[in-house]
Every structure is written in structure tokens, then in C-alpha cells.
Specification:
With 192 residues, this protein is an all-alpha fold. The protein has three helices and no strands.
Length: 192
């Protein structure tokens, strides 16, 4: 509900000063003053002789109490928000630390893989060179063996070949001539 109230300048200045002192709007101060007055009426502490100031309560005290209470609530809410922010900051710090640790672990893994790759490449290259050297030595050894066998065969076959040549010559000499009319020359003669 909306209520419009007209007050004189003096009361308006007092309301304005009280609202500034409480650091709230004038309309809020008037609302709190009305609430305070009504709560005093309902509690039974109001007397017409004493007016609104009975039992040591006046409108500025009621407004101030409500302002203090609302400020206390705001402070509690702000503290809760600050605690939440601190918790979030701690969680983010932990996450960043874990991320950094994972990055370091990955860097170490990559370094190990690179080292293993280089070592394996070197081993393959040296193994290949060793195999080539082994095959070259084997080929040289086989060539030397083949040459030795060839020389051995030639030296073994040479007397047999020479004796076969001499046998052929002897066979040719002993071969009978097809010409019957010819006189065979004696073996003891040196002329042909």
C-alpha cells in the first residue's frame, strides 16, 4: 500500500537528519519508525502520557536498532561469501598445483621417451653396422676358403692331369696304325 504523508519543514528536516545518521533513505526511515511505533502499541507499553518515548524507546533508537540488525545480517552474509571465496580460492590453487604437476610429469615422460628413442636409434644403427661388418668378414672368410680350396684342388689335380696327358701321349704312341702296309717302327728307335 502506498501512503503519502505531508509534514512540516521542521519534522522533515529531523527525518532527513535521522535518515542520514542511519545511512538509509528517508522513506526507509519512515517505514522503520512506523514499524517501531506499531510494535510498541501492540506490546502494550504505550501510554498517552508518555507518548512514544515510553520505556526509554524513541523512534531514532528503533530505527537505529533495525539498521544495526540489518547491518549485522549483511555482515554475516558478507562473511559467508568471504569464506566461500576463500574455499574457492583454495580449490583453484589446488587445481592449478595439480595441473602444474601433471605438466611436469608429462615433460619428464616426453624426455624419457626421447632419450629411449635416441638410444634405440643408436642401438639399431650400431647393430646394423656390426651386422654389415660381420657379413663383410664372413664374405672375406668364404672367399679365402674358396681360394684355398681352389688352390688345393689345382695342386691335387695337377699331377693327375699331367699323368693323364702323358698317358694320352703314350696311348697315341701305342696306337696301331690303320695302314697295314707300313712297317711299324721299333720302340727303341728315336726317330719318328
Amino acid at each position: 500500500m502506498r501512503i503519502s504523508v505531508y509534514v512540516d519543514d521542521e519534522l522533515g528536516a529531523r527525518i532527513e537528519a535521522a535518515a542520514e545518521k542511519s545511512a538509509i533513505k528517508k522513506s526507509e526511515w519512515v517505514r522503520m519508525a512506523c514499524n517501531g511505533y506499531l510494535s510498541v502499541l501492540e506490546s502494550g507499553f504505550y501510554s498517552e502520557e508518555m507518548g512514544f518515548d515510553c520505556a526509554g524507546i524513541n523512534s531514532s533508537d528503533l530505527g537505529r536498532d533495525e539498521t544495526i540488525e540489518s547491518q549485522k545480517n549483511e555482515i554475516l552474509q558478507l562473511r559467508a561469501e568471504v569464506e566461500t571465496q576463500k574455499e574457492l580460492q583454495e580449490v583453484f590453487s589446488k587445481l592449478i598445483t595439480e595441473k602444474d604437476q601433471r605438466i611436469e610429469d608429462m615433460k619428464e615422460s616426453i624426455s624419457r621417451i626421447e632419450a629411449m628413442s635416441i638410444t634405440t636409434t643408436d642401438q639399431i644403427a650400431s647393430s646394423k653396422d656390426e651386422r654389415i661388418d660381420d657379413l663383410s668378414r664372413m664374405i672375406e672368410h668364404l672367399q679365402a676358403q674358396a681360394a684355398a680350396h681352389s688352390a688345393a684342388l689345382q695342386s691335387a689335380l695337377k699331377p693327375a692331369l699331367e699323368s693323364e696327358d702323358s698317358k694320352k701321349e703314350l696311348a697315341e704312341e701305342l696306337k696301331p696304325d690303320d695302314d697295314v702296309n707300313m712297317i711299324q717302327k721299333p720302340k727303341w728307335m728315336f726317330w719318328k
